Amino acid sequence: MSSTVTSAFSPQPSDIMSEISDAIQTKCLAFSDRIIKLNDYLLKEAANKKPDFKIVKGKRVYEKTVPVYLQSVSNLCNQLLRAGTSIGANNAEARNAISKADFKSKSFIELKEARESLYWIDLLHRNNFIDDRQYESIYADCKRSF
């Protein structure tokens, strides 16, 4: 009859899983930070864009409505902000799951939010709100993290 003896210094499966979980959560937080900063940057850029105007009787008359480009970037940023930060929230929920089924469910939602984030990043790029360098960087960061 053999018994398995484990050393106090040998990594235990639960320790390894905890380290992996901590590493994933760290990546989630870093990605959320990037999304928040991108959101702030894009909204500031859009707000600083010169408003449209017409010449009426030799004077500039500026539009009093919110410009369409500001509405567009605001809506896209809001969607990306919600999806991109939700990844980490769902990861935190999965880390504290009460069952394997709960863990799988939260992890699947986390993956879906990452895919949705990629969609919004694509859309921001296709509509020239972010340039190629920004796009490639944040898109790769999202794909690499999840």
Secondary structure layout:
Layout (H helix, E strand, L loop, with lengths): L12 H36 L4 E4 L2 E4 L5 H28 L4 H27 L5 H14 L1
Antiparallel strand pairs: 1-2
Helix pairs in contact: 1-2, 1-4, 2-3, 3-4
Task: Report a brief summary of the structure.
With 146 residues, the chain is mostly helical. The protein has helices spanning 13-48, 68-95, 100-126, 132-145, and strands at 53-56, 59-62.
How far from one another are the termini? 44 Å
CATH superfamily: 23S rRNA-intervening sequence
Q: What is the helix/strand order?
A: HEEHHH
- Please describe the biggest sheet, giving its number of strands, its sense, and whether it closes into a barrel: 2 strands, antiparallel
Mean pLDDT: 84
Taken as a percent bin, the fraction of beta residues is 5-15%
CATH architecture: Up-down Bundle
Walk me through what this model shows.
This protein is mainly alpha-helical. It has one domain (15-145): Up-down Bundle (de novo design (two linked rop proteins)), CATH 1.20.1440. It has helices at 13-48, 68-95, 100-126, 132-145; strands spanning 53-56, 59-62. Strand 1 (53-56) and strand 2 form a beta hairpin. The model has no long low-confidence stretch (mean pLDDT 84).
Question: What are its keywords?
Answer:
146 residues, mainly alpha, elongated
